[in-house]
UniProtKB/TrEMBL annotation:
Subcellular location: Endoplasmic reticulum; Golgi apparatus, cis-Golgi network; Golgi apparatus membrane; Postsynaptic cell membrane
Protein name: Trafficking protein particle complex subunit
GO cellular component, one term: endoplasmic reticulum
Principal location listed in the UniProt entry: endoplasmic reticulum
Gene that encodes the chain: Trappc4
Similarity comment: Belongs to the TRAPP small subunits family. TRAPPC4 subfamily.
Subunit (UniProt): Part of the multisubunit transport protein particle (TRAPP) complex.
Lineage: Eukaryota, Metazoa, Chordata, Craniata, Vertebrata
Cited InterPro entries: Longin-like_dom_sf (IPR011012), TRAPPC (IPR007233)
CDD domains membership: TRAPPC4_synbindin
Length: 219
């Protein structure tokens, strides 16, 4: 079981804190000869697998590295276009590492804003007045848990579907936010959280939660 990440979104829908706690590695590196037996295409300025699956490489996986050098979007480490590089027989054999692309800071900001809108839509669609909005989204690989405070701040945790104790964790994170962000004289409401004590205590709370430990008084 694992907790993957934590997001804090202000009442306007802006991402003010994000922590990647655990990222499962699903990268696959193989050496290929020419011609490449996978169909690659450009998507959102990244080179991804459009057709063909083998040895753990799946449709949608992005090219992350070529010959051990990290790939930046659609370009190799020395600035060459990835698709042009891989279309040249002279560059083979070539070692390519595939995997799920890492979200950029801008993508995380955009996704947080989108969830804020979905939360509002969920509240409005409720047949009952005073709906608390979306509290959990479930997929086959993770669950997104959300807790909104009375002031509109949203705390979101992405965790393994089998992970327990997330409700208590969300309230613990709110407590940590109150103690180490709101009581910090240098912190401005609704602004990004940059506080070392907040980071330290949040990481400790995540470790306790992963071990299914209780959050008792003073913990």
């Amino acid at each position: 079981m694992a907790i993957f990440s934590v997001y804090v979104v202000n009442k306007a829908g802006g991402l003010i804190y994000q922590l990647d706690h655990y990222a499962p590695r699903a990268d696959t590196e193989k050496t290929f000869s020419f011609p490449l037996d996978l169909v690659l295409r450009l998507h959102d300025e990244r080179v991804v697998v459009a057709f063909g699956q083998r040895d753990g490489i799946r449709v949608g996986h992005a090219v992350l590295a070529i010959n051990g050098a990290e790939v930046n979007g659609r370009f190799t480490a020395d600035g060459k276009d990835v698709l042009e590089f891989l279309s040249n027989p002279a560059n083979y054999p070539v070692s390519i590492r595939f995997g799920r692309h890492r979200l950029s800071s801008n993508e995380k900001l955009m996704l947080a804003s989108m969830f804020h809108s979905l939360f509002a839509i969920g509240s409005q669609l409720s047949p009952e007045v005073g709906s608390s909005g979306i509290e959990m989204l479930e997929t086959d690989t993770f669950k997104l848990h959300c807790f909104q405070t009375l002031t509109g701040i949203k705390f979101m945790v992405l965790a393994d579907p089998r992970q327990t104790g997330i409700d208590a964790l969300l309230r613990k994170i709110y407590e940590i936010y109150s103690d180490y962000a709101l009581k910090n004289p240098f912190y401005s409401l609704e602004m990004p959280i940059r506080c070392e004590l907040f980071d330290q205590n949040l990481k400790l709370a995540l470790e306790v939660a992963e071990k299914a430990g209780p959050f008792g008084p003073g913990s």
